What does this fold into?
Amino acid sequence: MTIISAPRLVIGNRVVGPGAVVVEDGVITDVIEGRPAPGPHHLALEEGLLGPGLIDVQINGCLGVDFAQAGLEEWQTVCAALPTHGVTAFQPTIITNPIPDLVASLRRFTETRPKLEGAGARPLGMHVEGPFISPERRGVHDPRHMCHPTPDNLAPLLAERTAITMVTLAPELPGAMVAIRELVAAGIVVSIGHSDARATDVHEAVLAGARMVTHIFNAQRGLTHREPGVAGQALVEPALTLGLIADFHHVAPQVCALVMNAAPGRVALVTDAVAPAGMPPGLYQLAGQRIRLAAGDPLARNLNGTIAGAAIFLDQAVRNLVGIGRNIGEVIHAASTVPATVLGRNDLGRLTPGAAADLVWWSDTLAPLRTWVAGNTVYQADSVI
It folds into this structure.
């Protein structure tokens, strides 16, 4: 048994304290108000904030790694590095490719995942973003490989359902409502994204079982006063969790604040990071395409200049939102509890008895100082060693 105390704790979406968590066999067994008495099993954090580990449910890669092609060593590199940013679990994301290539990526992941136990951050199931998306809202996705979610196109992915936790699709496509119901029945979360849908299509998708919107306001029909589109309807659908890229380049700070205000408790911070994240400027891969991170550009782009993804980690998104005046508890909740909940993982992303002891100790400037996964230290900053 270990007791970890801190001046402040994030419980739900509130900051409280002082307090402590009791950890046994990798699980939180109790949350205590006040400071426990000193003892041999008591780790007292004298400053900062203790919160649940962050969970990134849309990350395509980082550190030169593209998850579509990653091998064991590359997965190990990512799992070891993400805890330095407070990330204790992640949903690796692969984008539109020929369906046989997507199946190959899923099978490699299925083979590799058991070998990553104890490697650092937990890889959850994969997020398959495409190929059932709108060519009009494709972003960097290759239109040659897009298709409708027909039974024949869906079947190869459903055959790999144990590797998949989420699929992004456009609900206006022919066959989409049937596909949503089949995916949900298979235990897969459906997210609306890369979509030119109107509000009525979005509402119908929610009735069919869709539960998330992929990177709200990006690559989707936007909000007007006469047609809410994907973004506007998402803001008023209480069943939808809204993925938000808070790098302040994909979505302006004011619009990030608008989303947080309009959908309290329903925003999941994501990075949409790609292989150049954490790397110097240069050329990298994304689903077989070459993408570039140019010096001075905060975004990765394809060679035509289209945005391919972000180059940040989730702790930076947390600092960004707190920096514009958002409450720390609300922001960490959006980067931990909300993403865990949309995936049905009530054992992750929260400081509550029965949850995994995936924890982050934050400095007063919101830099991760120490990260635990299942109660084991997987990162500790040099300044606190």
